[in-house]
Specification:
2 domains; seven-stranded mixed beta sheet; Spore Coat Polysaccharide Biosynthesis Protein SpsA, Chain A; alpha/beta; 14 helices
Length: 383
Amino acid sequence: MDQNDILKVTVVIPSLNPDEKLLSTIRGVLDVGFKDIILVNDGSDSEHLEPFKEATQFPEVTLLTHEVNKGKGRAMKTAMAWFLENRKESPGIVTMDGDGQHAPEDVFECSKAMLEGDTVVLGVRDFSGKDVPWKSKAGNNITKFIFRAFCGIKISDTQTGLRAFPARLIGQFSEFYGERYEYETNMLLEMKHAKIPFKEVTIRTIYLDDNVRSHFNPFKDGFRIYSVIFKFLGRNLGSFVKYVFSSGLCAIIDILLFSLFNILFKAFVPTLDGHAVTMISTVGARIISSFCNFVINRKAVFGAGDRASILKYYLLAAVIMVSSGLLVSGLTEALTLMSKVNIEDHIFVKSLIKVVVDTALFFVSYSVQKKWVFGTKKESKDE
């Protein structure tokens, strides 16, 4: 692959009510050497049509127009549909914003990485800089955490508009749900669901005038974005609901067995010490209930596993048990030092600490069981 192959990639620029930065963006892309640009006017008003008219003076630019604003997602899909119909020889597309926040050199690097790996490439920014607007930094950090903790997707920049796609995948991407900014978020979620890998390329972080010209509405568009995230979680929540049910059922089995063993020992072995009865009943009930939990999780919750799964399961159970004890003890001691009140004397507070710790470990246990205990090697890699 040489530089000419990279420059055959089609550049897609969706735009709404642009200013002079749109023409600077186009000139920059052409100066790098790209030869094909699809520019989408997403229903701009009459006061912002001049940049589009000037853009059409470049022979490399194809202008597609929405008579009314339909959203960034629809603009990207319009470009994808036109690409599939008219650019059958192009190796792929790279999308970028037309407001000057993407450097032409980074567009080239993302296109290069896409062709080298024949995979989706995301141009990711560094949000740690002082020039990054606080709302952009906060929005990305929150969404990034949700993506990783709840969706199992590790990504550095969930909001990036600089993305490169091989031609073979564009038809699939054009079918993903979303008309406005939520489309870019749903794209990442659908990639996870369809097991489409991606690569990240670090790009320059450019914010002009504190990003005041952004058309992103933090309320309307934020609601749409989190709606598709919750929709994704709901679609993939089946195993977690069954996991909760399995845990609750086995907790009931544990309590019933503990009570039954206590009754039996007192009836048939009355000479046995009370502490010994409690310990034996606890261990016996836990062994049986945990095995029931293992079988239910393997057969009905995750539907997977191998011969080593039972060893992994009990190893995890031991780690969770020790972690619970250490965390409860550590937090109790820390709160005692901070409040100068002996938390050991306040059973309610200590019990509350245990509830919080065990709830957190409950989610950790689910994730580890899904990915490691009952996950095949292939599934673990994909996660």
